[in-house]
Amino acid sequence: MTRKARLIYNPVSGHEQMPKAVADILDVLEQAGYEASAFRTTPEENSAKNEATRVAEAGFELVVAAGGDGTINEVVNGLAFLENPPKVAIIPAGTTNDFARALGIPRDDPVKAARVVLDQHTLKMDIGKAAFQDHDNYFVNIAAGGSLTELTYGVPSEIKSALGYSAYLIKGAEMLPHLTENHMRLTYDEGVYEGKLSMFLLGMTNSIGGFEQIMPDAQLSDGLFQLIVVKPADPANLLRLMALALNGRHVDDPNIIYTKTKNLKVELIGESADKPLPVNLDGEIGGYCPVEFTNLHRRIEFFVGQTKNITK
């Protein structure tokens, strides 16, 4: 019986390079033994998500997500709730491409990324589930909340390329006068943190904003989140923590909690209880606190390249 693959691509990702590569990518998928077809996403809300669900329910064996981290997140949200989701391949065409970086997928050539399917190396990867009060959402790379969260995604890619981690320090210094602290209760496997904090990060991979040292012990399929909690700190101390984090030397700092957990419950308490606090999932707002996170161990099977961050 013929195996079917659907390429779901964002035509505006990566300086609009994807449309030119579609024919060659479909040819690679045909070489891999699939009857391949393509779907061009539209500005309509949940375009990629709905198409991923549709083809999965139609019996397609492979979904290829081509675009930036947002497109990949949307495809995953269309598949993660299914009992038997199809395999997924990633073709990065965005600016940061954190998840593709973690999977060892080539990020400089869409057709080269597609050829990873030919090697037939797959592993079932963990997916994060975020249960909000009125809906569920899924993520593959990072969840974050708190006033420092903008730092994770607020630095333009061209500035990161030119300045490296210094760009984050500059952005952090710009944000310092406007930072606020939230009074929160975080309940995780090994304990409870209750008090004020500047930010929490819940990581699935070791790559955040293109840096690979912020979650130094991350594994892609061990069933555990990496949790970082940044406690309140004076402005000068926050800049010091940011510098340490971007070089992987922050985990033992007394202002940081760094641990692994399968679950995390986040609640606003005290004077912060009535504040709307957004939760960022893979670079986009996924909902508002309170929220409960669960690690869905090895939920989706991905094609992978060469990477050291996989627990078999």
TrEMBL record:
Give the required cofactors: Mg(2+)
Q: Name one GO biological process term.
A: phospholipid biosynthetic process
Swiss-Prot/TrEMBL keywords: ATP-binding, Kinase, Lipid biosynthesis, Lipid metabolism, Magnesium, Metal-binding, Nucleotide-binding, Phospholipid biosynthesis, Phospholipid metabolism, Transferase
Q: Which SMART domains does the entry link to?
A: DAGKc (SM00046)
Where's the DAGKc domain?
1-134
Recorded GO cellular component terms are: plasma membrane
Return one GO MF term: ATP binding
In terms of superkingdom, the source organism counts as Bacteria
Family as reported in the entry's similarity comment: Belongs to the diacylglycerol/lipid kinase family.
| Entry-linked NCBIfam families | PRK13055.1 (NF009603), YegS/Rv2252/BmrU family lipid kinase (TIGR00147)
Name of the protein in its database record: Diacylglycerol kinase
The organism is Lactobacillus corticis
